[in-house]
Design a protein that fits this description.
With 200 residues, the protein is mainly alpha-helical. It has nine helices and four strands, in the order αββαααααββααα. It has one domain.
Length: 200
């Protein structure tokens, strides 16, 4: 189940230039932003976002209370964050073998998304930005971590339409989410998630 209507809306939102309300905005600086990403990148980002939207409403949420609050059983108002780890533990473990057989997803296993690291020394001397190799996924949870890393890199500007590898990773991430949907959409454990995912 792909979010066919979202990429276009998202693309327009990112690429639009001109007036906002009564004020003329200086927007020429971003007039080429849309050319830096493909339709597939927008679709992956929007699908990932919808997953998190549905996860929150299905109560796949992190317990962000402090250790003391948890220990004391205190009620606390915290930021709502989707809990991908809890979600992943309920997905059938056969998803790993399904992904390994998928030609589009094989990059997630054979050449997984790298970690972006920085070397810090002294008093906040940020010396070196570098990409660090990641271990090959050994579990469904590891696969979800891979796709979250791809999303984070895309959101923070580290993915480009001009890079074949970036395009390959984003395509693999999108197909992985498709496989997840196929694995869970008829499962009783994900009824609330599936209901919340629907736009209708």
């Amino acid at each position: 189940m792909r979010l066919n209507c979202i990429p276009q809306d998202l693309r327009i939102a990112l690429a639009c230039v001109g007036n906002v309300g009564r004020h003329t905005m200086h927007s020429s600086y971003r007039e080429d932003i849309a050319s830096l990403a493909s339709e597939e990148m927008f679709e992956f980002f929007a699908t990932f976002a919808r997953f998190e939207y549905a996860m929150k409403r299905a109560k796949f949420l992190e317990d962000s209370r402090t250790k003391k609050q948890k220990k004391d059983g205190d009620t606390a108002e915290v930021n709502a964050r989707a809990n991908w780890n809890t979600f992943a533990t309920l997905v059938d473990k056969s998803l790993l073998s399904t992904v390994k057989k998928c030609s589009v997803c094989k990059v997630l296993i054979e050449d997984p998304a790298k970690r972006h690291r920085v070397t810090i020394s002294g008093e906040k001397n940020f010396d070196t930005l570098q990409w660090q190799d990641a271990d090959a996924p050994q579990s469904v949870n590891d696969l979800f971590l891979q796709v979250r890393r791809i999303r984070n890199s895309l959101f923070h500007g580290e993915k480009s339409v001009h890079s074949n590898r970036d395009a390959e990773l984003v395509r693999a991430g999108l197909h992985f989410l498709d496989h997840v949907w196929e694995a869970i959409h008829d499962s009783d454990s994900f009824t609330e998630f599936v209901d919340a995912f629907d736009y209708l």
